[in-house]
Amino acid sequence: MNCPELEGIGLTKSEILVYTTLLRTGQSSTGRIVREAGISSGKIYEILDRLIEKGLVSYILRNNVKYFSASEPHKIREYAEKKKQEMISKEKEIESLIPKLKELKKAKETEYSAEIHMGIDGIKTALVSLIENLEKDSELMFLGGSGVRKTAIDLVWKKVVKIMNKNKIRSRFIVTDASDESKKELENYKRQYSLFTYRFAPGFHLAPIVIGKNQTIILNFREQSAIVIRSSTIAEQFRFFFESMWKISKPD
Predict the structure, then answer these.
(1) Chain centre to alpha carbon of residue 182
(2) CATH topology assigned to domain 111-251
(3) Are 95 and 103 in contact (CB under 8 A)?
(4) Which of 7, 50, 111, 145 fits a 20 to 30 Å CA distance from 152?
(5) Arithmetic mean of pLDDT, 162-166
(6) From CA 143, how far away is CA 153, in angstroms rounded?
(7) Strand 139-144 vs strand 170-175: parallel, antiparallel, or unpaired?
(8) In Å, what is the CA distance from 90 to each residue of 24, 69, 96, 132, 172?
(9) Predicted confidence (pLDDT) per residue in 172-199, tens digit
(10) What is the pairing mode between strands 215-220 and 57-62?
């Protein structure tokens, strides 16, 4: 019997085959299980031991012969719940480990490094990573056109807006599109994120760039790539350029 749902909770195909065979045949010796399930006799005890450990099979001893039975189907629910709790516990362990791994990565990073993230998921990873690593009360800067800005924000907005509000991260945007539609979009972001300000630079062609404290991301949505540059010096140079543009840009 093919039960992909059981694979989803951690049972192997062999375990599923033996378990469903026992449900169908009832109490059986290993010889009968091997015949009915088509399992190798050399592996049957190993499979049965795993199912017993998972609480899905039991046995009785009769005339020194073991007869195995499948547990009631509701045991599957109990097993799935147990796996769920184990996963929750592991997730908590992983969450507590992430800060240590980040510190380890920082310790090994050189003063300057660069990497390219490809694809939409790669762009999302780069943007979220930059924002998650911003310190409390720091600032995020963005240069880019309306369509590019909207694409970049839409990719990560729901995930990072809570982080930015919680850590009081300020954000300034310089965009080239001063249309009514663009203003409407920007005001919508501002309603959700109070530390958000923007200005317009119509007539300028600005490459989409996101600037953090020690990181700069250059976005290319046509080729679906993000170039991540980790360098405090380069980030400082881009911030200087941003401030120069901010002075000549027009507020709403």
Answers:
(1) 30
(2) Endonuclease; Chain A (3.30.870)
(3) no
(4) 111
(5) 80
(6) 12
(7) parallel
(8) 35, 32, 10, 21, 38
(9) 888 877 777 777 877 877 887 778 888 8
(10) unpaired
Closest CA to 219 of 137, 134, 153: 153
Lookup: tokens for 21: 């065979």
DSSP result, 12-38: -HHHHHHHHHHHHH-SB-HHHHHHHHT
- 3-class secondary-structure state, position 178: coil
Q: Which residues pair with 60 in a beta bridge?
A: 67
Contact (Cβ atoms closer than 8 angstroms) between residue 249 and residue 241: no
Q: CA-to-CA distance for 34 and 48, rounded, in angstroms?
A: 11
Q: For every residue of 57-79, which 3-state class applies, written as one string?
A: EEEEEECCEEEEEECCCHHHHHH
Q: Given its phi and psi angles, is residue 224 left (phi above 0), alpha (psi -120 to 50 degrees) or beta? A: left
DSSP state of 249: S
* Residues facing 171 on adjacent strands: 140, 196
Residue intervals of the chain classified under CATH 3.30.870.10 are 111-251
CA distance 166 to 217: 23
Residue range(s) of every CATH 1.10.10.10 domain in the chain: 4-75
DSSP class of residue 177 equals -
For residue 108, the model assigns a pLDDT of 54
Strand 209-211 relative to strand 215-220, pairing? antiparallel
Give the mean pLDDT of 122-140.
Answer: 84
Which one has a higher pLDDT value, 23 or 108? 23
Residues 6+ apart with CB under 8 A from 103: none
Q: What is the spatial distance between Cα 83 and Cα 89, in angstroms, rounded to a whole number?
A: 10
Do residues 19 and 57 make contact, with C-beta atoms less than 8 angstroms apart? yes
Query: Could you identify the residue written with the tokens 């469903």?
Result: 20
Domain 4-75 has CATH 1.10.10.10: yes
